[in-house]
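The authors assume throughout that readers already know how a fold can be written as discrete tokens. The format is easy to grasp once an entry is in front of the reader. For illustration, here is how one protein appears when written out as sequence plus structure tokens:
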Amino acid sequence: MWRVWFYFDIRRALVALHVGLAVLAFTIHFILLSTTNYNWLEDASAAPAAAAITSPEAPAAG
């Protein structure tokens, strides 16, 4: 296995690996943002939760 690195520069291989993984991550995130179920930026159910957090009422003791 160590002889493989004689054919490839380890710095270029690691940079290519990181760039490839970043492109894959961005692609997955943009695919999820384009769906209606997994779009966390325009989720309609997030508004009531945010309103509950900023509610002026004190939480119940218990």
